[in-house]
Design a protein that fits this description.
The protein has about 625 residues and is α+β, with helices and mostly antiparallel strands. The protein has three domains: about 190 residues, no CATH class; about 260 residues, no CATH class; about 150 residues, no CATH class. It is built from 20 helices and ten strands. Strands 1, 2, 3, 4, 5, 6, 7, 8, 9 and 10 form a ten-stranded mixed sheet that branches. α11 packs parallel to α18. The radius of gyration is 31 Å and the shape is elongated. The two termini are about 35 Å apart.
């Protein structure tokens, strides 16, 4: 109880220093609560379909990213707060407190702060959830009319998750606090020593090596896994944690490079800034790491979560273009394509036709387990061989008939003619032989069967090839032939350009990254205010050495901007490594992927961080200089 009273008094005496951790945790819990309330509404009565799948994916991604960012920000803020309190904790040790009591004091502070933040976040999430669902429905990311339903579990689950995040984020800082010795109460030097401990180094290297090992293993065995949303959402978190832990090792070389680039000669303030800024940042690595950490998170997540979907989407479009030989794609109105196909064949100059329909097929494994998969039912296999440029590894698509199937290599049946037990969409069982084996890819190159093995399927696409001299007249003739049946006729370019609208993709990115970037910005501002307030004596000594008030303010602002730039560089490096693994998977799959990099998104976030650093550091430095230098230097 004595340690709890000390913890409460400590929080009361330093409310501003942990404001960033409080806001980050409260916003993270609010996001988690809104996500869980949305998932409860979806599972209770939302209609099924693609909208529901999209809703679950977007909400799950947003909740996971928010939880990670909250934990990272809380851990970073508390770590620096404990480093600032070395003398205070040393005085507790001098007064007789044991290591365990000091650890329990820090953990008690985190529990009290976390409980208040989680309660506030749950209330905010409950208020914001209806507006979030209305926004999702209006944006086309959720089924229309989706509304909250009475559910007991979302808010307690969000509260418990937030409290767990708070305790987990503070655990390392509490352990460091327990190692504070009594003599630290007498410490006056501000130079950081022993920042890169053996445990920190090994953990950071372990996370980095684990990322590399998992990536290499995936490239060798299942490169498609690297292209899944759950993978390119979670993998950057390994790199972000590694950068945060290894920042005392990675930041000094970047600061030395900045020291060479900054001006060292000339009059005015250029010379002291060029000499002192990198040196001050390198001498206080804890402060440098604490300021850079939120920037690393924001830039790395932005680069990864904005760049990966764009790269995968561009790769899908490029793959579809490389594997589509049709000049026109006709979409039937009601799926009854028999009369439509006859009308299209009667158009002069029309070459091959290939009508396909979606169906499901389950392959029966040797142990009796059935693996369900989407498939395409082909009407006229000769058209498939003529119009679909599929990546055939063995066999030929022209050999497809009612007794065979075409399947990708991932299913494990690589020998042409091998019998494969299957279950059709209506539940009937049969055995089909392998006509061709395809190389794995991203797009629609999975299972192919004939219409005889797809009961109940309805044609949704007819590929049409025009003659070598086909032009606008023949396209017009095809449109005229399809018009009586209500079918839509698209050119090859129009069909390939179809897909999720850029607005929908942008809204998903905003939902996932918006709040994360917001409270990393809050954490950056809070850390800058904490760090500058802690430097009151150092800044006073600069004044006594002859620096003017304006020079000191410029010095602190330049250092903050420099450290923010270092964090942006580390974040860009983490995002680049993640995107490199993604493009490596595309290269292994032999997908013609154009290089798509999120320069705009990363540039906006980086510029915002630099501007925020300047706007926060300058007034914080001016506030710290309000006391006379002689008084502050005591």
């Amino acid at each position: 109880m004595r340690m709890l009273r000390i913890a409460l008094k400590s929080l009361k005496a330093r409310p501003v220093s942990l404001l960033g951790a409080f806001l980050a945790l409260a916003l993270g819990v609010a996001t988690t609560a809104a996500v869980l309330l949305g998932l409860a509404a979806a599972s209770a009565g939302a209609p099924g379909g693609e909208d529901l799948v999209s809703l679950v994916a977007v909400l799950g991604t947003a909740g996971g990213v928010s939880a990670f960012v909250s934990a990272f920000v809380v851990a970073s803020t508390y770590s620096y707060a404990v480093a600032q309190r070395r003398r205070e904790l040393g005085l507790l040790r001098l007064a007789g407190a044991t290591r365990g009591q000091v650890r329990r004091t820090v953990l008690a502070e985190a529990l009290v702060l976390g409980a208040v933040a989680c309660a506030s976040g749950c209330a905010l999430g409950h208020l914001a959830a209806p507006a979030l669902l209305r926004w999702l429905s209006g944006a086309g990311l959720a089924p229309p009319g989706l509304a909250l339903v009475p559910a007991v579990w979302p808010l307690p689950a969000a509260f418990a998750t937030g409290l767990l995040v708070a305790v987990a984020g503070v655990a390392v800082a509490a352990r460091r606090a327990g190692r504070t010795g009594p003599l630290d109460a007498l410490r006056t030097a501000d130079l950081d020593t022993g920042v890169l401990t053996a445990g920190r180094l090994l953990t950071g290297l372990g996370l980095l090596l684990a990322f590399l090992a998992l990536t290499v293993a995936a490239l060798a065995t299942d490169p498609v896994d690297l292209l899944h949303r759950k993978t390119f959402t979670t993998r950057p978190m390994w790199l972000i944690c590694a950068c945060g832990l290894l920042s005392p090792l990675l930041a000094p070389p970047l600061l030395r490079l900045a020291a060479r680039a900054l001006p060292h000669r000339g009059g005015g303030s250029a010379r002291p800034v060029g000499r002192l800024v990198p040196a001050a940042a390198a001498a206080a690595l804890r402060r440098t790491g604490a300021v850079a950490a939120p920037v690393v998170v924001a830039v790395a997540l932005t680069g990864s979560l904005a760049g990966a979907p764009a790269a995968v989407g561009a790769a899908r479009s490029a793959e579809a273009g490389a594997r589509t030989g049709a000049d026109l794609v006709v979409v039937p109105a009601d799926g009854s394509a028999g009369p439509l196909l006859a009308a299209l064949r009667a158009v002069p100059g029309v070459g091959a036709l290939c009508a396909t329909a979606p169906t499901t097929l389950a392959l029966v494994e040797p142990d009796g387990v059935t693996v369900r998969s989407e498939a395409r039912a082909v009407t006229g296999p000769a058209g498939l061989a003529a119009l679909a440029r599929l990546p055939v590894l063995a066999g030929s698509t022209a050999a497809l008939d009612d007794e065979s199937l075409v399947l990708p290599a991932e299913w494990g049946h690589h020998r042409v003619g091998e019998p494969v037990p299957v279950v059709r969409a209506d539940g009937s069982r049969t055995t089909l032989r392998v006509a061709a084996v395809l190389r794995d890819g991203l797009g629609d190159n999975g299972l192919y069967v004939t219409a005889a093995n797809a009961p109940g399927s309805r044609v949704d696409r007819v590929d049409v090839a025009l003659g070598p001299d086909g032009g606008s007249d023949r396209v017009a003739a095809v449109r005229s032939a399809a018009l009586p049946y209500g079918a839509a006729v698209h050119t090859r370019e129009q069909w390939l350009a179809a897909g999720p609208s850029p607005r929908t993709t942008w809204l998903r990115t905003v939902l996932v990254l918006g709040l994360a970037v917001l409270y990393t910005g809050i954490a950056l501002a809070n850390t800058l205010f904490m760090a500058t307030a802690d430097r009151r004596r150092e800044l006073a000594l600069l004044r006594l050495a002859g620096a003017t008030r304006a020079q000191v303010v410029r010095l602190v602002t330049a250092e903050s901007v420099l450290v923010t730039a270092v964090g942006a560089v580390l974040g860009c490096a983490a995002a680049a490594v993640q995107l490199a693994s993604l493009y490596g998977a595309l290269a292994v799959l032999r997908v013609p992927a154009p290089l798509v990099l999120p320069w705009h998104e990363v540039g906006v976030v980086t510029a915002g961080a630099l501007l925020l650093a300047a706007l926060c550091a300058a007034p914080a430095a001016a506030w710290a200089l309000r006391v006379r230098p002689v008084v502050a230097a005591r």
